[in-house]
Design goal:
The complex is a heterodimer of chains A (392) and B (293).
Chain A lengths: L1 E5 H11 L4 E4 L6 H13 L5 E4 L3 H13 L4 E6 H16 L5 E6 L13 H4 L7 E4 L3 H18 L3 E6 L7 E5 L3 H7 L16 E2 L5 H33 L6 E4 L6 E5 L3 H14 L4 E6 L1 E3 L3 H8 L4 E6 L9 H10 L8 E5 L9 H13 L8 E2 L13
Parallel strand pairs in A: 2-3, 2-4, 4-5, 5-7, 6-7, 11-12, 11-14, 14-15, 15-16
Antiparallel strand pairs in A: 1-8, 6-13, 10-12
Chain B lengths: L21 H13 L3 E6 L2 H5 L12 E4 L4 H15 L5 E7 H6 L2 H9 L5 E6 L36 H6 L5 E6 L3 H13 L4 E6 L3 H4 L6 H10 L6 E4 L3 E4 L8 H6 L9 H21 L5
Parallel strand pairs in B: 1-2, 1-3, 3-4, 4-6, 5-6
Antiparallel strand pairs in B: 5-7, 7-8
Helix pairs in contact in B: 1-7, 3-5
Classes of the chains: A alpha/beta (392), B alpha/beta (293).
Chain lengths: 392, 293
Amino acid sequence: MKKVLEGSQAVAEAVRLAKVSVISAYPITPQTHIVEFLSEYCSDGRLGARFLRVESEHSALAALIGAASSGVRTFTATSSQGLALMHELLHWTSGARLPVVMVEVNRALAPGWNIWTDQTDSLAQRDTGWIQLYCENSQETLDTTLQAFRLAEMVNLPVMVVLDAFYLSHTYEPVDVPEQELVDCFLPPYDPKFQVDTKDPRAFGSLVLPNAYMEMRHNIAMAMEEVLSIFPEIEEDFAGIFGRRYGSVEPIACDDAEIILVTSGTVTSTSRQVIQGLRAKGEKVGLLKVKLFRPFPSEMFRRILRPAKKVAVIDRNFSFGASGIFAQELRAALCNLPGHPPVFGYIAGIGGRDVTTDILENIYWQTKKNEVPEKESIWMGLQEVDHATESS
Amino acid sequence: MQLKVPEREYMYPGHVACPGCGAAIAMRLFMKVMGEKTIIVLPACCWSIIAGAYPQSTLQVPIIHSAFETGGAVASGVRAALDIKGDTETTVVTWAGDGGTFDIGFQALSGAVERNEDFIYVCYDNEAYMNTGIQRSSSTPYGAWTTTTPGQEWKKMRKKNIVEALVAHRIPYAATANIAFPEDMIRKVQKAKEIKGARFLHIFASCPTGWRIPSEISVKIARMAVQTNIFPLYEVEGGVKYTINYTPKEYPVREYFKLQGRFQHLTDNDLAQIQEMVNEDWELLLRKAGELS
C-alpha cells in the first residue's frame, strides 16, 4: 500500500515486516526517529520483538552480538559518533559471522559538531567486514533493508544499509509498503546456521592460534566474494515479487557516454536531473550510481567505465592525506585495466552542504575541459575563509 | 549448616590456567551449582585463555567470548533472545575479571543492572589485569606493587568498592564469595540462581603469579583475606538488606601481607595505616548490617 512516509519510518516499516526478534539501540541524531518508530511498534504489539534500550551504541551492538549468537534476527540503527563508538564491535560481528542488520544514517563527525549528512562515518568502517549498501530514496531504503536480512543470513555476514541524514532520513515521500504475506514469501523465518545451545555446548569466539585464524579470515573473504553473485539473485527474487530492482550499481545513459559521473546516495537523484539537462544540450554524459560498496563490484565498474573517456567521481567524504574514498576505490579497481579512463575526483557536500545542480554541472564542465586530473581531489564550492591571523 | 559440594563437574580435566589459579577454582565451584542449563558470556579476562583455544573448550556449557567491555551488554542480548524463544530454564551468566568489571566494563554492567536484566554477573577478582601481566586496576588494593605501579609508585589509592557501587543500583542480589569458603560460595550461587533480575557475585580469587606467592598457598591466602577482614563475606538483598556471613576473630592484616611478594615494600607505618583502613571499612559494614549502632 502506498503511504507518505518519512525515510526513517520506511526503515522502521521494513524492520517490522522482517519480523525482527531483538532490537537494541541508543539514540543519536538523526537516527532517533527510526528507533522511536520501532519502540512504538514493539510497545503496541505491531512487532513482537524485545527492544533493548541500552546505555550506549557500543552496548547496542554488543547486545546484538549476544542475541544473534543465540539464533534470532536482530536490528539496530546508528549514525556518526555512534558508529565510530561501535568500531571494535563491527569487527567482532563480522569475525563472529553474525547476520546483524544495521541502518546507518550518514552524518558528519565532530568536531565541530555537525549533524548533517556526510559519508565519512560509514566509509571509515569499510575494512570491518560489513556489507555496505547505499540508498538513494525512501523506497529503496525500505526495500534494501528487507533484502539486507536475507543477504546477511545467506552469507553470515553483517549488513549496513546506509542513507543520507535529513535529505533521506527526515524527508517524506510516497512509499509502497508491501503486504506482510508477500514479505513472508521473500524473507522466510530466520534459520540460523549455528547458535549457542545448552544441548550442544560449544565455545564461540575463543582464542585462535595462527594455525587456524588465517583460514577463518579467508572464509570471510570468500563469503564477501559470494555477495557479488548472491545479491543480484536476491534482487531478482525481490523484483519477481515486488516489481522493483536497483542493481548493485546502476548505469544511466552510460552506453555511449564519454564522461561518466559516479555518485552514491541522494546526490544521485540530483545528478539524474543534471545529466538529463546536459544530454538535452547534446553532451555525451552518463551517470553511474554505486549502491553496493562492500564488497566492491570492481568487475562491473571495469565493464561499464572502460568505454568512457573520463570518469568523474563525486565524493561526499574525504580521507585526509589521500582523496575521496569512492574515487580511491575506483582507481584501484581500474588500475590494472590497460587504457582505462582517467578518474577525476571531486569533493562536494561535506557536512551537509547542498550539492546543487550548479555544482554538478560545474563538475561535468571541469572534467570535460581538462585532459587529465589536476589533483587527486578537487574541493567544490569552497568559500573563501578568513583564517585567524595574529593581531599586531 | 554445612552444604555438601556437588560431585558433578562441568569443567573438563585440563585447562590453561597457571598452577594454583583462584579463578579456575572459582569457576569449578560455581558451575557445580549452575549445571548444564547455563550460557556463559566471557569478556576478555584470564578466563578467555583458561577456557582453551579453538577448537577445544574447558567448559561443558556454551560460551560466548566477547570484547572486554561488553559483559553486561552481551548477556542482555542473549537473555532477550532466549526470552523471545521462550527458553525460561537457561540462566545467562557473565563471567568477568576485575578489570572488565571495575574498569572498562563498568558502564555496560551499570547499564544492564539499571535495566534489571535477568542474569548473573560474576566478577572473579584477582586484583589486577593478570591476563596482560599484572597491571593495576581499580580493584588493586592500597599498598600493592604491580607492573604499572612499580618501585615507589606502589598503589596509593583504595580499592574501588564494587559491591557498594552495585548496591547503589538497588540490585536484587549482590554478594561476596571466596574460593576458600566453598560452602558459603555454593549457597550464594544457589541463591543467586533462584532470584530473578540482575544478580552480582564478587568472588575473591587469588593469583599466585601476580601476588608473588607459591601456588600451594593460593587457598590459604584467600582464606586469610576473609579472616583479616580485608575481604568480608556478606550479601545485600534489594540494595538495602545487609547480612554478614562470617565474623572473624581478631587477626592482624600484617600476617596476610607478609606472605605476598606484592606487598614486601610496605613499612610498619604503612601496615598500621592499612590496618586502620580495614578496621574502618569493617565498622562501616557492621553499621550497614545493623550489628553496630
